[in-house]
Amino acid sequence: MKRKVTLAEVARSAGVSHQTVSNVLNNRSVVREETRKLVLQHLEKMGYRRNAMARSLKTNKFSLIGLVVPSMTNSMYAEVAQAVVREAERQGYTVMMAVTERDVNVELSVVNTIIEHSVAGILISPSDTEEMEGAASRVITKLDVPVVEILNRSSKSVCDVFEADNREGGRLATEHLIDCGHRSIGFIAGVNNSTARSRYQGFVDGIDKAGLAVIPELVVRGNYTREGGRAACQLMLDSGFPFTAIFCASDIMAYGAMDELAARGLKIPQDVAIVGFDDMEMSSLPGVSLSSISFHPASLARQAIERLIKKIEKPESAGSSIHELQSCSLVVRNSTVGPFLQGSST
């Protein structure tokens, strides 16, 4: 195996300091153009980092794009990642991905690490809460790195956003349950971010339109995990407040709620109907058959990465920030359609 050339060796060969070589590698403007060309020549001659970074330095075009997502247990993010990688590679870019597990501190850390790799831009699905107010996106913007948010939106968004119309989706899910005859409906919420708040507002819209009331004891946070969905359903069942349906702000939480209902011997939809959000592939399986709100995350991902690349390559033509909302639709399956509807008189 060929020995790796060090920065010190390149510096000696070029007759410059170690710091000067480092400045060139990080594309810092403090280096004079003639010195920069000299260092690049020696980097090339000595075979140092013959990869995307070296090619980027020669062409002055960085070809690395960062992708930051909160989770990979949700197949929706895997679908997004696949679409982003395919489109980015088609346009000559490489994607560096990081997963934050919805921890805003981890998110800030990985964003700083990605920026240190001299990325051309960053596509981020922020784990934002009202308290953090889009800290990661603001850091990226402050450092003048092109950024686009996808699926989730910062509380104080400062960049382009591509997301589902979450409020519309929440309303569609709630109206469907009401149309099925349900009048006492629980809501399992996600984390306290813009997506969860919008889906909850859609739930409230549907309840208000029908002249019903939101029952606070039947609004429980499930934190976008299967375990959280099950725990939230437990709290609902133990609250003593009767309900016949649940709208879950994600399919993953709906799976957890279905686990708890089954463990207590309750039938779906005869005893409790349930609707999710995201229309994950698993939801269509015969053994699950979960009614869900559908949108097209891969389509959003392609739009978002195309927008990011435009901001990278033609910043002068990108114009002002845009907020793209993708319409949602309801996919009806066995978890809501059944004997309850047939036997309901209201």
Describe this structure in words.
With 346 residues, this protein is of the alpha/beta class. The protein folds into 3 domains: 7-59, 434 Repressor (Amino-terminal Domain) (Orthogonal Bundle); 64-164 and 297-313, 3-Layer(aba) Sandwich (Rossmann fold); 166-294 and 330-343, 3-Layer(aba) Sandwich (Rossmann fold), CATH 3.40.50. It contains 13 helices and 12 strands. It has a 6-stranded parallel beta sheet with strand order 2-1-3-4-5-11, with helices on both faces. Strands 7-6-8-9-10-12 form a 6-stranded mixed beta sheet, sandwiched between helices. Helix 1 (7-14) packs across helix 2, helix 1 packs across helix 3 (33-45) and helix 10 (226-238) crosses helix 11 (251-263). The longest helix is centred in the C-terminal third of the chain and has 17 residues, at 297-313. The chain is elongated, with a radius of gyration of 25 Å. The chain starts with 6 loop residues before the first helix and ends with a helix.
The CATH homologous superfamily of the largest domain: Response regulator
SSE ordering: HHHHEHEHEHEEHEHEHEHEEHEEH
Average of the residue pLDDT scores: 87
Helicity level: 40-55%
Q: Please report which band the strand proportion falls in: under 5%, 5-15%, 15-25%, 25-35%, 35-45% or over 45%.
A: 15-25%
- Assign an overall shape: elongated
